[in-house]
Design goal:
Blueprint: H1 26-40, E1 44-48, H2 54-61, E2 66-71, H3 74-86, E3 93-97, H4 100-103, E4 114-118, H5 126-137, E5 142-148, E6 156-157, E7 160-168, E8 171-178, H6 179-184
Parallel strand pairs: 1-2, 1-4, 2-3, 4-5
Antiparallel strand pairs: 5-8, 6-7, 7-8
Length: 189
């Protein structure tokens, strides 16, 4: 696994041993950040269910001001911290240990441009709705859910409305924005 683009392009990332984590494929990460290119510069990127940190590290590499990583698994946390240290990102990265659903409402600050990425393990499908409902109470500018194409996501959660869907193989990215944002812009991302 490697960083796809930006200042850390081609740098290698350590992987978590075993099969407990499911890294976002390189091609899907590249697609995601091509879409995010006009919005990532200076943003705070929240990487829920971070695993190795590949998605959040990619965000920093491509211009995010900082990233907040949430992970609860010990092996994944060790790998995540190692990747952050090896790449020299300790001043731009914050790691929080625990369950994403319990920490998410403390991540988003209304004064910051914030992008939240969530990719819970597929067997934790109920987490999508829990997280999206929590985020809808004080919605960030953008929420992206990576999920299986078999997982049926709603068109909306509170004020968050789905504005775009990208599918690659079994992986799908659903983009959600607050209604006030989507009402102001006639075309989705």
């Amino acid at each position: 696994m490697r960083v796809i683009g930006g200042e850390l392009r081609s740098r290698r990332l350590a992987s978590v041993p075993g099969t407990e984590t499911r890294p976002t494929p390189d091609r899907l990460r590249e697609t995601l950040f091509n879409v995010l290119a006009p919005r990532i510069d200076g943003a705070v990127f929240v990487d829920l269910y971070a695993g190795t940190g590949a998605v959040g590290i990619e965000a920093i590499s491509r211009g995010a001001a900082r990233a907040i990583f949430v992970e609860r698994g010990k092996a994944a946390l060790d790998t995540l911290r190692s990747n952050i240290t090896t790449l020299g990102l300790t001043k731009r990265a914050e790691v929080r240990q625990g369950k994403a659903v319990g920490l998410v409402d403390r991540m988003v600050r209304p004064t910051e441009t914030c992008i939240v990425f969530l990719d819970p393990p597929y067997e934790m499908e109920q987490e999508y709705e829990l997280i999206l409902e929590k985020l809808a109470k004080d919605a960030p500018g953008l929420v992206i859910a990576q999920h299986s194409k078999r997982c049926k996501m709603k068109e909306g959660y509170g004020v968050l409305r789905r504005t775009r869907v990208i599918q690659q193989g079994d992986n799908t990215l659903s983009f959600y924005e607050p209604e006030s944002t989507t009402a102001d812009s006639p075309t989705p991302m």
